[in-house]
Amino acid sequence: MWCSSPMSPETRSPTAWYCLLLAWAVAAASALGALFLGEVMGLQPCVLCWWQRVAIFPLVLILPAGMFPLDPRVTRYSLPLALAGWMFALFHVLLVAGVIPERIQPCTRGVPCKDIQIEWFRFLTIPHLSLMAFTLLILFLLLARKRMPT
């Protein structure tokens, strides 16, 4: 991966900036995807989906604010949101897979969290997509943090 290649200390900032740009691209695509599924396709989000949206939507604004100009503290503010979203997404994946017992489900009203509304290629569900997005976000943010100027 190009943003994890070793570089001299003088070129760390551009590498960190590109990693933040990739993280923002993942966050923006995820937010647009969530809006498309809800507003265009009419799919109602469950409680866990709402909490994942709460974690991803602010990142669409926080990451560009830390990129123009490059603020080394941006990962300090964005990583906790990405980690919280990742934990909600992992819980959701485990709930859908049946690993977590039904009595622990947070969805007592509205759309059940265990329902599979979309399934692509017979295995890819919305919670899987969310988990992949948050994993990529965390990876890019950690790489950016490592490459930030001191």
Word description of this protein:
The chain has helices at 12-40, 47-67, 74-97, 126-147; strands spanning 119-120, 124-125. The protein has 150 residues and is mainly alpha-helical. Helix 1 (12-40) runs antiparallel to helix 2, helix 2 runs antiparallel to helix 3 and helix 3 (74-97) packs antiparallel against helix 4. The two termini are 23 Å apart. Residues 4-11 have low confidence and may be disordered.
Topology of this structure?
Blueprint: H1 12-40, H2 47-67, H3 74-97, E1 119-120, E2 124-125, H4 126-147
Antiparallel strand pairs: 1-2
Helix content: 55-70%
Separation of the first and last Cα atoms: 23 Å
Strand content: under 5%
> Helical stretch count?
4
Instruction: Kindly report the average pLDDT value.
Output: 87
Radius of gyration: 17 Å
What is the count of β-strands? 2
Low-pLDDT runs: 4-11
Main β-sheet: number of strands, strand sense, barrel status? 2 strands, antiparallel
By secondary-structure content and strand pairing, the structural class works out as mainly alpha
The largest sheet has its strands arranged as: 1-2
Bulk shape: elongated
